[in-house]
Design brief:
Shape: globular
Strand order of the largest sheet: 1-2-3-4-8-7-6-5
Number of helices: 2
Helix content: 10-25%
């Protein structure tokens, strides 16, 4: 009964390959970032629109490879990656990668169905939508924890 770990894992040199629950970001953006800081970094969005919600309407900025949503106070509420052409900053994980790649990059998910892998962090949740037939990541979202 060996664990298969021959003690050659040196925590000092091995890169951190897990989801950091205390520091959740996508594209280097975090929940609560200002709309201004996003525009300073990525420029003006291709288009913007408001998703009506009685409690807190969300203003959505659409860019080529991702979209972001802001609360009424113009604080970042979510980021959604919609293209494999952009690196979301998740240890190399991109759209079109497999669920095994996700576990490789982020570690085991907190909840896992054939359609969604969810990683729950402090103040933010990372959600990977999975195509169950292809076993490929279709979208990557980060949003504030309820």
């Amino acid at each position: 009964g060996t664990s298969g770990d021959n003690g050659n894992k040196n925590p000092e040199t091995s890169p951190k390959k897990t989801f950091d629950k205390s520091d959740v970001s996508l594209l280097g953006l975090k929940v609560g970032d200002s709309a201004k800081s996003v525009e300073e970094r990525f420029g003006a969005p291709n288009k913007q629109f408001v998703m009506d919600d009685e409690n807190d309407p969300i203003t959505v900025y659409d860019y080529d490879h991702f979209s972001v949503g802001f609360t009424a106070a113009l604080k970042l509420a979510f980021v959604e990656i919609i293209s494999a052409d952009i690196d979301p900053g998740l240890n190399g994980l991109r759209l079109g990668h497999s669920t095994a790649d996700a576990v490789d990059a982020l570690g085991e998910s907190d909840s896992d169905t054939s359609y969604v892998m969810t990683y729950i962090g402090k103040g933010a949740i990372l959600k990977l939508d999975i195509d169950p037939i292809e076993n490929k990541i279709q979208s990557i979202k980060m949003f504030a924890t309820p």
